Amino acid sequence: MPSIFTRIVNGEIPAWKVAENAHCLAFLDINPLAEGHTLVIPKMEVDNLWDLEPELFTELMRFAHQVARALGKVSSATKVGMAVIGLEVPHAHIHLVPINGVNDIDFRKEKLKFSPEEFKAIADRIASAL
């Protein structure tokens, strides 16, 4: 059964896309820790980040770097943190989270809520900074 992320890649589930290329996709997390919390994934479904072929791993990191820089330009946070947990969805992914301190990237925190219009505006703002 395809992961929820594969279903997003295939267009079966909508997402607020930030950036996309032939091999990678970035979209807003629907349960964000911060405004702009973005997920970066390879389009190929691979459960473990460390199981990606070196070329795809490198492409994913380059792509995440571009998205993180754009996110940093539009966020008022001090930094953009990166986390790879890999337990909640069996599809390799990177969390990019605007942070001001280490506790801002604590996944036990209560998640923020945004309207569809707010999610779209956030995604558009990040995409425009690419």
Detailed description of the structure:
- The protein has a five-stranded antiparallel sheet.
- It has 130 residues and is α+β, with helices and mostly antiparallel strands.
- The longest helix has 21 residues, at 54-74.
- Helix 2 (54-74) packs across helix 3 (116-128).
- The protein has helices spanning 4-9, 54-74, 116-128; strands at 17-20, 24-28, 38-42, 79-83, 94-99.
- The mean pLDDT is 97.
- The chain is built from three helices and five strands.
- It is globular, with a radius of gyration of 14 Å.
- It has a single domain (4-84, 93-128), classed as HIT-like (HIT family, subunit A, 2-Layer Sandwich), CATH 3.30.428.
- A hairpin with a 3-residue loop joins strand 1 (17-20) and strand 2 (24-28).
Features:
3 helices, 31% helix, globular, alpha+beta, single chain, 130 residues, HIT family, subunit A, five-stranded antiparallel beta sheet
Q: Main beta sheet, described? A: 5 strands, antiparallel
**CATH superfamily, called what?**
HIT-like
Category from helices, strands and their pairing: alpha+beta
Mean pLDDT: 97
Would you count the extended β strands for me? 5
How are the strands of the biggest sheet laid out side by side?
A: 1-2-3-5-4
Helix content: 25-40%
Per DSSP, the total helix count is 3
What is the string of SSEs from the N terminus onward?
HEEEHEEH
Q: In CATH terms, what is the architecture?
A: 2-Layer Sandwich
Overall structural domain count: 1
* C-alpha geometry: globular
